[in-house]
Design brief:
single chain; alpha/beta; Aminopeptidase; 2 domains; seven-stranded mixed beta sheet; 7 helices; 13% strand; binds zinc ion
Amino acid sequence: MRSSPRRKDSGWIILAWSLNGLGLLTLVAVFAFYMAGQSEAAPDSFIDDSYAPRPTRTPAPTLYYLPTVTPNPRATMVEDYFTPTAFVFNVGPAPTVIGFSVLGRPIQVYTFGQGENQYLIVAGIHGGYEGNGIALANEMVVYISEHPDVIPSGDTLYIIPDMNPDAAARGRNADARVNANGVDLNRNFPTDNWVADWDHSNCWNDRPTTGGAYGGSEPETKAVMNFILSHHIQAMISYHSAALGVFPGGVPWEPESKNLARILAKQTGYPYPPIDIGCVYTGTLADWAVEHNVRAAVDMELSTHQNTDFEQNLKALKALLGF
Ligand SMILES: [Zn+2]
């Protein structure tokens, strides 16, 4: 008879401790969830910004770095299928690795044709932030593999679809522009006008970044420099987005690069002269290229951050190969 109330008591004790346990588990779960949220909310953490200038300027720039553009609904939308991983396809030539990123990702080049006149397309220098350029380069690789006649018999075309793979792997936001050292690779080429820091007020200013410890400091930059120095490139396009137009290489712009820019602008409808937002560009790939025996080079911006503008750029490719 005495055992019955005792059993009843122990039942309540078990229930009370179970509730305690449940409460504790809930607290642990809430804490874990909060910590996960914290680390997601700090996407800068993977960028080593030790080079980055300390914020000495007044914050809150009044100028946005790009004009507002309306996406073209007829062009291919990238967001549904773009993946910032190494591009894999099973037609055409295998790519050659020309170097590695800071984090060890391969930088690849596809080669089409065997002619004497050599042309180069580089995409992704500003990472997944401008990932539609990478998607365009990948579309070109597939298209040329399926239509090899696009390449005239006297020509060789090289395509580097993703020059900044560490950035592309970060997704398609402002954090995905610079390399893993926080360097803007299109400011890192050892041109005559290279500088580590510049007036950011009229330029891209979403994150702290630099031109590197010195011109050509970054492994991605070195890979492309070595490639260009070991070839005789007639003309090249470095793809960007969005909307500012076609920028000829050279400081001041070289006549041959201006010719190329004019021709490409005519084929694509992109602005030439490019839209001047008051930003001074230093250490760019196109400027360095024309200082090092590339006959003509341009930075060319797709019309939005989403579309590949494939049809326009197929025309641009044919014009490039005829240059
Ligand atoms: Zn860019």
